[in-house]
Amino acid sequence: MSPGWHRGLIELRQSLTQPAELFNHCFWPTLMLITLYFMRGHAALLPSILGMNAAMGMVTMSQGLTADREDGTLLRARATPNGLREYLRGKIISVSGGLLVDLTIFLVPALLIVRDLPSVDVGTVLWVLGLGLLATLPLGAILGALLPTARGQGLLTLPILAVIGISGIFYPITALPGWLQSMAQIFPVYWLGLGMRTAFLPTEAGHPLATAAVLAAWAVAGLVLAPRVLRERLIGQHRVQPSRAGRVQAR
Q1: Quick count: other Cβ atoms within 10 Å of Cβ 54?
Q2: CB burial readout 150-180, b (16+ within 10 A) else e
Q3: Do the Cβ atoms of 53 and 99 come closer than 8 Å?
Q4: Is 205 helix (H, G, I), strand (E, B) or coil?
Q5: Pure H helices in 39-177
Q6: Is 119 helix (H, G, I), strand (E, B) or coil?
Q7: 28-66 residue pLDDT tens
Q8: N-terminal to C-terminal alpha carbon distance within the chain
Q9: Angle between the 208-250 and 188-200 helix axes, to the nearest 10 degrees?
Q10: DSSP, res 104
Q11: Are the C-beta atoms of 140 and 58 separated by less than 8 Å?
Q12: Where are the beta strands (DSSP E) in 126-228?
């Protein structure tokens, strides 16, 4: 087992055993279930919630990475061979594992609430979710690396919510202007939501090959770029800190 896998599994186990983290794993699925219960006549809401929460993993990834950068975890990872790649691999495992736990807590009772769903294509759910996480989590790592401090997370959450809002997650994308539809289809969130709706609602027109191609392209780009962005960000941070220390000593 690689160091990244080992680290990711340890972080996942800790998140499932610490009371505060365990509360978060149960709290948000419960809120989603309450929302789904009062809107149980809208079958499309179930796959939309799944797609939205998978996309929101970008925020979780960004928050964890920013915190690790500020407490020196990333600098220690950079000092080891292939440390940043292994760190990124471990973070993807821990965050995606936590998301899968959250989605499972939500999905099992949700299928009992929404009873007018046709048969669910489990295979489509699995490959869309897997590719979707690989497409969005490295992007969250890149965005987290570019944030100056953890206090800037609010600046990241708003654009992600805006992208989710225009991606047809909660209402048909055809209701938007043509230029906004084209913009939404650039991002992986649209294809993640489309794939989920296709799995739960076979009557919807899906594009499985296009969905797989776009999500795979984002996944490859993110996995290639994320370690480089992290490395450059840490190098820049390392250069700035000595200069600040020198100015303090000069004073």
Answers
A1: 28
A2: eeebeebeeebeebbebbbbeeebeebeeee
A3: yes
A4: coil
A5: 45-55, 57-70, 73-78, 83-113, 122-146, 153-165
A6: coil
A7: 889 889 988 887 777 777 888 888 888 888 888 888 888
A8: 50
A9: 140
A10: H
A11: yes
A12: none
